[in-house]
Amino acid sequence: MIGGIAPECTGGCALFTLSDERPDDWWEVEALYDTCFAPGRTLLSSYRLREGVAPVAALCRVARDPQGMIGGAIRYWPVRVGGARALLLGPVAVHPTAQGEGLGAALIRDTLARAEELGEDRVLLVGDAPYYARFGFERLDGVVMPPPTNPDRVLGFALRPGAWDGVTGEVTSWQQEA
């Protein structure tokens, strides 16, 4: 959805509007990530893939309440799996006061649709399979994230039929492959 109320949201969450993350939102989004995740979040392997690489601006979205405060955010990063381009989804976060009302789902669905419109083929993430399965994510065999990453949490979504067929190998940052 481009602007407007996210249809997946219920209750107070329905008041949020989805929009592109602006450069001056960076610190507020980072503060939201600090609120939602453990203090060592930047030490995770997925963060090493993001170092020195700009996120995909067209897929970095925020959810704003009526006062303009950010209550949710999602970012994507360009990576390679073997030699194939992929998008690394994450982090996605919703402020604790708005969790459980569909805002995270709205951000994910919105950005997956946008990624498809942009002509991207595949999305990768490290996450909880039961949660992400409802969006169509499946476990990826043969896709190796930097350690320490539990292989059962490496999930993919094909934006085009067969986009993950035959795509295997190490996940590397865009910068390492450029």
Question: Mind sketching the topology for me?
Answer:
Blueprint: E1 17-20, H1 26-36, H2 45-48, E2 61-64, E3 70-81, E4 84-94, H3 103-117, E5 122-126, H4 129-133, E6 138-139, E7 143-144, E8 154-158, E9 169-173, H5 174-177
Question: How would you describe this protein?
Answer:
With 178 residues, the chain is α+β, with helices and mostly antiparallel strands. Helix content is 22%, strand content 28%. The chain has 5 helices and 9 strands; from the N terminus they run βααβββαβαββββα. The protein has helices at 26-36, 45-48, 103-117, 129-133, 174-177; strands at residues 17-20, 61-64, 70-81, 84-94, 122-126, 138-139, 143-144, 154-158, 169-173. Strands 1, 2, 3, 4, 5, 6, 7, 8 and 9 form a 9-stranded mixed beta sheet that branches. α3 links the parallel β4 and β5. The chain starts with 16 loop residues before the first strand and ends with a helix.
